[in-house]
Amino acid sequence: MLAPPATTQTPPADKEVDMGGWNAMTYDGRDTILRVVRQESEQFFDMASAPDAWERDTACPGWQVRDVVGHLVDTTESYFVGFDAARGKGEAAETYGLPGMADRVNTQAQSLRSVPKDELIERARADYSKFAAILEDLSEQEWSGLVVPHFYMGPLPAFFYPAFQLMDYGVHSWDIRQGTGRAHGMSGEVADLLVPFMFVLWQSTAAVSESSQPSELGVRITTGANAGDTIMSHTRGSVLREWGRIERVDDHRVRPRELRPDRLRPLQRGDRAWRRCRRGQLPQPVLPDLAIGTT
Fold first, then answer.
1. Could you tell me the residue range of the domain that residue 204 belongs to?
2. Domain check: are 180 and 247 in the same one?
3. 229 or 7, greater pLDDT
4. Residue 15 — very low, low, confident or very high, per pLDDT cuts 50/70/90?
5. Based on the domain organization, do 168 and 226 belong to the same domain?
6. Does residue 155 sit in the same domain as residue 276?
């Protein structure tokens, strides 16, 4: 089982001040991320409810809009189980792990294709409303102190779950718009809020051999509330990250990359890295945009 690794170093004081309400890993960012998730969910349901949308292809190969809705239903309802278990109201299933996640997510989403459109959308809306209320009710202590079992990743602090919702509604809204063939872009607010979580996602999905050559990668986010430098390194079979100036990284081992916030994104089902996951071969490490040479 792959568990999400701990951050190697907390952001320096001035970094936290700069991030302010845009660091959803802290309670200060609570209102911002919940507001943006609400906005993205409203847009998502408007797009999914459009008369000609239900069986239209999306940016996720093999998925139509109805499959994305089914995925959100499956995912959100698994969160109810996790939060109940965290509060002593039942038991969560054993952590499934990440290597088999891709196939299972696909199976679960497409298993709901037989559910009529209006019924599935209403179920997804009800799931969103119920989970939004759970997140709204989290206290400051619970935001980071309540540990909630995630079906695939295992125990995680509660603040990860609003970020997962943002990935679901923000990134999958992008997938739906991409399927229309019209010009569009990801919301700047979504991209900014997801920046800190993308580094954790990279760590959590990396499979680095004990014998692999140590290396470092400097990533500079050039714009937005979470702009700044982060250094990713792998050694002794693990991937670490820390805030720091890229200039300190050994130029012989790394070529720094500069990215806009919207270039840091979760894996898409069509990415080469995602396809390796489907075959049970996790990337080393997963750096979806960087690995394919795009900036």
1. 197-290
2. no
3. 229
4. very low
5. no
6. no
155 shares a domain with 69:
yes
30 with 162, same domain: the answer is yes
Number of independent structural domains in the chain: 2
Q: Is the pTM of this model over 0.85?
A: no
Q: b/e map of 42-51 (b: 16 or more CB within 10 Å)?
A: eebbebbeee
Residues 182, 202 within the same domain: no
Q: Report the CATH number at residue 149.
A: 1.20.120.450
Identify whether the C-beta of residue 262 lies closer than 8 Å to the C-beta of residue 185: yes
pLDDT digits (tens, 9 = 90+) for 143-191: 999 999 999 999 999 999 999 999 999 999 999 999 888 888 888 899 8
Percent of the chain with pLDDT over 90: 49
- Count of CB atoms situated within 10 Å of the CB of 191: 25
- Please state, in angstroms and rounded to a whole number, the distance separating the CA atoms of residues 186 and 217: 25
- Taking the C-alpha atoms of residue 121 and residue 218, their distance in angstroms, rounded to an integer, is 42
CB 280 within 8 Å of CB 269: no
